[in-house]
Amino acid sequence: MAINLEFENKLWEMADKLRGNIQPSDYKDVILGLIFLKYISDSFEEKHRDLISEDAGFEEDRDAYIEDNVFFVPPSARWDFIKKSAKQSIIGQIIDEAMIAIERENKNLKGVLPKNYARPELDKTKLGELIDLFSFNLGNKSARAQDVLGRVYEYFLGKFGSSEGEFYTPPTIVKLLVGMIEPYKGRVYDPCCGSGGMFVQSQRFVEEHQGRKDDVHIFGQEFTANTWRLCKMNLAIRGIDGNLGGRDADTFSNDLHKNLRADFVLANPPFNVSDYTLIQDDARWKYGIPPANNANYAWIEHMISKLSPTGIAGFVMANGSMSTSTKAEAEIRKNIIEARLVDCIVTMPPNLFYNVTIPVCLWFISKNKENRKDNILFIDARKMGTMVTRKHRELSDVEIKKIYDTYHNWRDEKEYIDIQGFCKSANIEEVRGHEYILTPGRYVGIEEAEDDGEPFDEKMARLTGELAEMFAKSHQLEDEIRKRLGAIGYEF
């Protein structure tokens, strides 16, 4: 079966037809849980066949699977058994019991898997049809199965994300963040990791650049219990061993990684949160105490506090963060700029997120700026991207590469040059002159219009002639309207 968008889209369309009266927010647990069950069962069956061929009697030995990073799946939870039971009226109960059995055999999945398939509102006939839908044959190679099912899982996350963007960061933004900071090797941290898109893209980046997956160590935290479970499944289906803590938790009041100093921080914090837990005397507020009614700068300071001495952070923020003039935020921004921590700011085009149109920017913070410590790179990417639907925009890979190549050339002192309307390397004095406002438009200027070769005098004569013609037509239209209104007794 080809791995392509057409296949994934058809799979989604068929699955969506079977949703019935289940809300999308509940249905995603049903769907993603089944995909995960199919994935771990396929991986188990391949290892099971290998052990049988070895004829050593270890094919039902749990340790033989665990030592090879394969989840042990008991007989009652294997996909073949689930598929044979798909037409039974108790199929929901069978799946719930399968999820419980898998968690019992694999401690790192405890409390992760959905176990609500037996609920009355879930049509059991449609549930059986979903099982048939996901029973496609992926062949006997786990790498292929992992890739296909991983892509299906990721695609379905994105489709659900169109209505529930809170747990899903658009691939355009994730790719750009990862391309900018290049997490080849080290500790990668996300304090609000959602469904784990940053981690999956980091792993993909490492693999595409011939790196070793084992050289990247994942640390994350997520506030919402259901999203934390989605992330655990997403990492498992990609073969990523991540430390997400023992459960969901609030990053501000219960930091699960207090002693962590990360080489890379990647994050898309929730914007403008007004009811977060602010601990006044927290060591994280080195550059000023953030306001209690907006968590944006609390997130920024938290992420700075997590960086190693050579660490770099890339994260998404609402545009207001670049120029807010509230006393606390303006002071923090000034302090982190004067501490030579801000490396680059990128403004993005609108409509990148599925469920909100709020414009966003990307911040890049570096603890090791070295020769560029007195400069900040500003990039204005607001004109980039293409509307792929009426409400959603995406950047092409070429556009993403243009942005991160510009940053890398500037950072590495290669062939960087300022481009009016797009990028500018501004020194600290210039930033001070703008009262520490970080909006790229203030620095990059307006893009120069292309010279069309028409002499200025001729162009002005042509344009004023066209304008006079339009004025004349407007007067004719006004007279016609007056006549018609007068004919029916209305004068003005």
Give a topology summary.
Layout: H1 5-17, H2 24-54, H3 62-66, H4 79-84, H5 91-105, H6 124-133, H7 142-161, H8 171-181, E1 186-190, H9 197-208, E2 216-220, H10 225-237, E3 242-243, E4 262-267, H11 296-305, E5 307-318, H12 327-338, E6 342-347, E7 360-366, E8 375-380, E9 386-387, E10 393-394, H13 397-411, E11 423-427, H14 428-433, H15 441-444, H16 456-487
Parallel strand pairs: 1-2, 1-4, 2-3, 4-5, 6-8
Antiparallel strand pairs: 5-7, 6-7, 8-11, 9-10
Provide an overview of this structure:
It contains 16 helices and 11 strands. It is α/β, with parallel strands linked by helices and 492 residues long. Helix 2 packs antiparallel against helix 7, helix 2 runs parallel beside helix 10 and helix 8 runs parallel beside helix 13. It is globular and about 90 Å long. The mean pLDDT is 85.
Q: Which properties best describe this structure?
A:
alpha/beta, two-stranded antiparallel ribbon, 492 residues, 2 domains, 12% strand, single chain, Rossmann fold, 9-stranded mixed beta sheet, Ferritin, 16 helices
